[in-house]
Amino acid sequence: MTTLTAPLSEAPLDEGFRPHTSHWGVFSARMKDGELEVRPHAGDPDPNEIIQNFPGALRHRARIAQPMVRRGWLENGPGPDERRGRDEYLPMSWSAVLDKLAGELRRVRDDFGPGAIFGGSYGWSSAGRFHHAQSQVHRFLNTSTGGYVKSVNSYSSGASSVLVPHIIGDYEDLVKRNVSWEQIAEHSEIVLAFGGMALKNSMVTGGGSSKHVERGAMQRAHQRGCDFVLVGPLRGDLPEEAGAEWLSSIPGTDTALMMALVHSLVVAGLHDRDFLERYTVGWPVFERYLLGETDGQPKDAAWAAAITGVPAQAITALARRLHGKRALIVVAHALQRAEHGEQPVWMGMVLAAALGQIGLPGGGYGYALGAIGYYGRRYNAVPMPTLPQGRNAVTDFIPVARISDMLLNPGTSYRYNGQTRTYPEIKLVYWAGGNPFHHHQDLNRLKQAFARLDTLVVHELAWTATARHADIVLPCTMTLEREDIGGNANDPLLVPMRPAIAPYGEARDDYAIFADLAERLGTAQAFTEGRTVRQWLEHLYEPTRAALAEAGLPAPSFAEFQASEGYDMPQQDDDGGRLRAFRTDPTAHPLPTPSGKLEIFSQRIASFGEADCPGHPAWLGATNVPDAASPFVLVANQPRTRLHSQFDFGGHSSGAKHRGREVARMHPEDAEARGITEGDIIRISNERGACLAAVNVTDSIRQGVVQLPTGAWYDPVDPEEDKPLCVHGNPNVLTRDVGTSALAQGCTGQLTTVQVERFDGNLPPIQAYDPPVRRPS
Ligand SMILES: Nc1nc2c(c(=O)[nH]1)N[C@H]1C(S)=C(S)[C@@H](COP(=O)(O)OP(=O)(O)OC[C@H]3O[C@@H](n4cnc5c(=O)[nH]c(N)nc54)[C@H](O)[C@@H]3O)O[C@H]1N2
Ligand SMILES: Nc1nc2c(c(=O)[nH]1)N[C@H]1C(S)=C(S)[C@@H](COP(=O)(O)OP(=O)(O)OC[C@H]3O[C@@H](n4cnc5c(=O)[nH]c(N)nc54)[C@H](O)[C@@H]3O)O[C@H]1N2
Ligand SMILES: [Mo]
């Protein structure tokens, strides 16, 4: 710890603006004349407009005002029910609903054991450190039901987070303590970004960011003469400020392109043999594959051109440009959120190794840089407040994106990271802070999976499609309705989050709901430790204060912190992490891989014997190959105007829709061939489902590709049907629910193939935000 910034408070807030933070940035808020006003943090050079979703969302009709129970569950008791998703809801008092829920938790725990409860509860919830819903639900289940079946990994990095420990070592270190934005601004000479580094993505930071630095860093690098090259289907994945050259490529083919780049280096004798010798294992095996000695197919530029759509000559020219420069290879998370998603992550490392750049400032492998705002920054030098979750007595888990498989196929086996595992039989699912009807693939299949349950419990602030499938819906507060501490380990500002308004209707904090449930289960002391919210905040803040004091820095008391506009924490050096240390001295600082080196061939992965993830990076063939029935590749990427599905009904998100529908993009020639023009409504479909969207016709997308972001709330026009049309534009009715490979079983939601037609029928109204109809009981 050397870069000690003295704590500094920002310009004082005036006229009742109170500090707050969200995953989309630090901001302040006030109520004026009954309206919420928000404004970005004064020190933020490039604020995120997503905060403008708050005002319209705060009291929107989609909010949930009181506890609700699904009629079928109330009348028939727990059990499988096809009506989930189209049933009606009846209001119930808090005390009655918590009595019922406590009884049901007790029944499942006593009759089937805690291993029949799935509490993975994946999702981003909100930014506060205490009211973090996923931490709350885990803590509750650990203290009060004897634990739960959990999920491991994320939808974000399902393939890479399993692969990287085998081949590079420390995943966190790779994404967070490796190549920083400061290094790019100062050192990089060429940045080759597969899938880009879209500002819309880095504007989002789990826990919130006080300064969005990415645009400025790319601008400074570009002005200094650094070249940016974007490979991918969308021109907008690098900002104007980067001055990037766009190599338009077919999605899902990056591994082949990277191989051809390495092949071009090798045949020209330009690969860094010393680096490969000293820092890697397995190059000779891979080189034989690359040159075609093992399978008769050299992975050369002509071969790759046919697969990727990038001309052979552009590939060889790019290889030469990369050689001899401070070159940075970036691979977006998106590339591994696809079938065989492990391959581009592995091959990106091999390309960076062949260039000999790994471990140099601004060079090497910036995996996922720019995907989220906490990558490529410094770590704080003091601990951040964190709610302890307790110990889970159940050891069973699933890879997070295998939820439908688990619910549909209990007792069957599957492969994961070298193990053969068995899906448990789940009776009750508890969700707080996530939206599987946003995040999961093949929603019609997910619906069938949820129909199998005895009970689905959801805490939500709004009537998401997940809430509409639940048996018990408990309304929770939204972040602006409660007090918290905001921050994350890679942003200096610790924020006293202050409420702007009282809770909506009967909504309660997740903590209060769990505390009352724990009371009923006889575990209140274990869950609450006797603390009020305020006492928890003080308790969680204390380690940070103590560390500041120990470092000899001003260490405000909790009361002082609470009354401030935030304090900057000291930060660690930008030291390049383990990869820099390894480069400097590979013997003293081996990587935490089996060999201690970068593994181009992994004996361990080879020993797992998976055909879909062999022992070295391999081109396993394209999986999203368009055909006559589904002639387009659909890119279902992150939305620009919101975080996932959160506040889709907010002003900024809904203002970007057209005729109420999410906007898809397609190329002018594709549109013309189908009689589609700007602003038309289109029907996007495949064998799994169909949705409507509005269309933006633009040449900033590759021909043959259609893009529809995630996050429009699932809105089935006729929920009685097996595969109802989503009239709003949720791409997850189309995506395939399969794992990346038997190694990682990650989410593959980014790409699929689809048909596109103009929709000339009567346009059904959007009903996604209307609370489910309720007959008076
Ligand atoms: N097709 C496709 N699908 C994808 C992806 C893709 O690229 N393509 N990307 C995937 C990725 S990377 C991710 S991370 C997932 C994201 O999936 P999720 O994280 O599940 O999506 P969110 O919309 O952020 O869901 C958070 C939910 O928490 C609720 N919430 C907010 N605050 C609170 C609170 O205080 N308490 C409670 N109880 N609830 C709260 C919000 O209302 C919201 O419904 O989606 C994945 N899905
Ligand atoms: N505004 C906003 N920002 C977000 C989020 C959000 O919901 N909204 N979600 C956050 C989360 S949780 C995560 S995990 C990150 C996700 O970070 P990413 O997964 O990297 O983000 P995406 O926008 O899904 O994809 C980035 C780009 O990759 C390109 N792409 C897709 N497939 C391919 C391919 O096969 N090859 C190439 N070369 N390019 C391809 C697409 O054009 C896409 O725009 O974003 C974070 N940032
Ligand atoms: Mo994510």
UniProtKB/TrEMBL annotation:
Presence of the UniProt keyword rRNA-binding in the record: no
GO cellular component, one term: outer membrane-bounded periplasmic space
Domain Molybdopterin dinucleotide-binding: 632-746
Database matches in PROSITE patterns: MOLYBDOPTERIN_PROK_3
Domain of life: Bacteria
CDD domains: MopB_CT_DMSOR-BSOR-TMAOR (cd02793), MopB_DMSOR-BSOR-TMAOR (cd02769)
GO MF term list: electron transfer activity; molybdenum ion binding; molybdopterin cofactor binding; oxidoreductase activity
Every Molybdopterin oxidoreductase domain range: 63-520
Pfam family, one: Molybdopterin_N
Keyword annotations: Metal-binding, Molybdenum, Oxidoreductase, Periplasm
Domain annotation Molybdopterin oxidoreductase N-terminal: ranges: 20-59
Any one of the GO BP annotations: anaerobic respiration
Record carries keyword Transcription: no
InterPro entries, A to Z: Asp_de-COase-like_dom_sf, CT_DMSOR/BSOR/TMAOR, Molybdopterin_N, MoPterin_dinucl-bd_dom, Mopterin_OxRdtase, Mopterin_OxRdtase_prok_CS, Prok_Mopterin_Oxidored
Cofactor(s) demanded: Mo-bis(molybdopterin guanine dinucleotide)
Coiled coil: none
Family of the protein in this entry: Belongs to the prokaryotic molybdopterin-containing oxidoreductase family.
PANTHER family: TRIMETHYLAMINE-N-OXIDE REDUCTASE, TRIMETHYLAMINE-N-OXIDE REDUCTASE 2
This protein's name: Biotin transporter BioY
